Amino acid sequence: MNNETLLKMAYEATERSYAPYSKFKVGAALLTEEGKVFTGCNIECASFGGTNCAERTAIFKAISEGYNKFVKIAVVSAGEIFTYPCGICRQVLNEFAPDIDIVLDDHGDVKVINLKEMLPYSFGPSDLR
Ligand code: THU
Q: Distance from the CA of 99 to the CA of which of 58, 70, 74, 81 falls in 20 to 30 A?
């Protein structure tokens, strides 16, 4: 699947975002090795710590449905500015897909960054073996 299609699905997911507090609507679309796409949006909570980011919504959906091999993830926000995954999401992506490509968009300017570049010197599963 090309980056444009994946980005479009991520933008569609922003429409399902529940962000009454920050008003910052985020969407993600995660492509599995099998070619299946799991989308996610941020879901906020009045007790702020309960908030879940779009990327983690997508990855948790996939893992819970039995998919655990990932190729790339598109991450966008409704304002169409570059929206980089937060630290917690980078760590969760590293858990399941340390080599994943992250596809970002700013009004049609598309950037692809590998997670290894975004999270260098990471701590991960192999450190606990
Ligand atoms: N957010 C995401 O969904 N993904 C990120 O990687 C950055 C932050 C959400 C969390 C919260 O609902 C809102 O953006 C503002 O932080």
A: 81
